[in-house]
User: Which sequence fits this backbone?
């Protein structure tokens, strides 16, 4: 046959993004240095007494002290393990709720406005109820974490699943794929780039809810350390722990979510621009 | 394995909209023999893609029915596979993953699956690209993957929905050769929808010309010139001329009789 020309070269492997380039961290470092300098300058103006407005050195000392007493490590472990459990449960429950909303459209339409309302509902406002129902317990902290992030996950996952082009579903159904198998083999992988954003949204809601609840009623954890510092008028401790909370947020975002987003975008052939 | 015979009986489709019904197809009757290659051509909006969806079982007709080897089509099935435009490939799978998708769904054991996938990837000449990702392929290569993904299921009927509409003219002609070659090897009954009269004339044993909306069968032209053919074959050129005349008449008529 006067056949088509067979393609020759296999595609070149994707070799962007050499690992270990820290150049993009430089602006971040500059901002941190600038922040510390401005902070120290304000403290030295002496407008407020140092006990209420300690400078970077006092906060650094408080940090070292917490670290040496192993309090900090224990608190970080307590908070992060609560977060892991609460976040995972809210991801699972939120995804199930989103799937139900998409599958049973009337139910979905009926529940949608309430889910949207509950998404914006302040998680701290759940604290009194959770204490009444569950006492001053781990379960109560988990409850606030889950209820504070569940609906954000639901809204975001439902949106992500709705972005799946119908042509993929049509093509898969046409090849005999249906029901649960269609969801697992097509809908979820097709939506994965958006689902990672959903997980990120869920994580940030869960993190805020948990630390907030810990400030109010935990007996161990980062939120508790903030509250304890303020009770003892140890403002340096309050600020040190606040900085730890901030840094953990930055680290989780960069290490977990940005990495997986980049990976998926590369694999799916989406824009690789950072 | 020889393709199945299709019988399309009094098929009609009306879509319900906010401003009332939109009749896409009316009273389509068509018999397609086993291993026949039929092209369907018509003005845009004549319901030709709808016709394929109905044969695929992805939509349900308002009137009439479709039979395959005497059995009514009730829903989608892997015995009637559609090749869509290139966007229907799954970007989260590589070429091999796309081609084996239907076999995995069907639960074909691994050893057989791998052998069949390799065979069909070779048939569309993509053996060097088995592990390439979809976004790394050219438009023509993507459509080869689409063809392999459908044919690997050994369907009794292959339904092609303007598969080359997005390709450059040169690649499109190359793909027309590929399709004829695959059809000669696999003898799958094929319904090929296109808005390109030349493509319809090159590929079809019969060319079904649909009228303007609602789509009805206007004329059926026959072409038994030997394959593989190109647009320069005299019989093909004659069919292009005739099909164009009929389409022009249909469009003129539709302009004079607005809905």
Assistant:
């Amino acid at each position: 046959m006067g056949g088509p020309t067979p393609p020759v070269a296999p595609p070149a492997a994707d070799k962007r993004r050499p690992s270990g380039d820290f150049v993009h961290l430089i602006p971040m470092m500059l901002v941190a240095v600038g922040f510390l300098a401005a902070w120290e300058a304000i403290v030295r103006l002496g407008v407020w007494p140092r006990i209420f407005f300690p400078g970077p050195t006092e906060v650094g000392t408080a940090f070292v002290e917490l670290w040496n007493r192993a309090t900090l490590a224990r608190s970080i472990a307590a908070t992060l393990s609560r977060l892991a459990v609460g976040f995972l449960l809210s991801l699972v429950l939120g995804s199930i709720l989103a799937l139900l909303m998409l599958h049973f459209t009337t139910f979905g339409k009926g529940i949608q406005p309430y889910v949207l309302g509950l998404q914006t509902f302040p998680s701290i406002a759940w604290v009194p109820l959770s204490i009444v129902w569950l006492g001053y317990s781990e379960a109560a902290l988990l409850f606030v974490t889950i209820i504070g992030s569940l609906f954000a996950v639901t809204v975001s996952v439902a949106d992500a699943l709705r972005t799946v082009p119908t042509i993929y579903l049509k093509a898969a159904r046409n090849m005999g794929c249906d029901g649960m198998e269609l969801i697992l083999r097509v809908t979820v992988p097709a939506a994965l780039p958006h689902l990672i954003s959903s997980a990120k949204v869920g994580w940030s809601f869960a993190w805020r809810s948990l630390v907030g609840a810990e400030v109010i009623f935990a007996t161990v954890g980062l939120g508790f350390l903030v509250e304890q510092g303020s009770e003892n008028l140890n403002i340096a401790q309050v600020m040190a722990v606040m900085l730890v909370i901030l840094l953990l947020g930055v680290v989780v975002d960069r290490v977990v979510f940005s990495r997986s987003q980049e990976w998926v975008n590369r694999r799916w052939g989406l824009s690789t621009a950072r | 394995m020889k393709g199945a015979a299709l019988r399309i009986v009094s098929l009609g489709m009306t879509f319900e909209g906010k401003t009332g019904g939109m009749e896409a197809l009316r009273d389509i009757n068509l018999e397609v023999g086993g291993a026949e290659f039929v092209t369907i051509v018509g003005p845009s909006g004549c319901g030709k893609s709808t016709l394929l969806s109905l044969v695929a079982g992805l939509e349900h007709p308002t009137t009439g029915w479709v039979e395959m080897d005497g059995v009514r089509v009730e829903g989608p099935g892997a015995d009637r596979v559609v090749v869509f435009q290139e966007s229907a490939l799954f970007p989260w799978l590589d070429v091999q993953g796309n081609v084996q998708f239907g076999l995995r769904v069907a639960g074909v054991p691994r050893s057989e699956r791998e052998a069949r996938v390799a065979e069909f990837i070779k048939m569309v000449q993509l053996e060097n690209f088995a592990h390439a990702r979809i976004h790394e392929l050219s438009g023509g290569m993507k459509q080869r993957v689409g063809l392999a993904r459908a044919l690997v299921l050994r369907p009794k009927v292959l339904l092609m929905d303007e598969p080359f509409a997005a390709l450059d003219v040169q690649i499109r002609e190359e793909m027309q050769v590929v399709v004829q070659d695959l059809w000669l090897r696999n003898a799958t009954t094929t319904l090929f929808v296109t808005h390109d009269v030349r493509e319809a004339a090159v590929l079809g044993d019969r060319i079904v010309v649909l009228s303007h909306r609602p789509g009805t069968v206007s004329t059926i032209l026959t072409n038994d010139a030997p394959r593989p053919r190109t647009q320069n074959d005299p019989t093909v050129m004659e069919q292009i001329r005739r099909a164009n005349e009929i389409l022009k008449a249909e469009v003129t008529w539709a302009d004079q009789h607005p809905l």
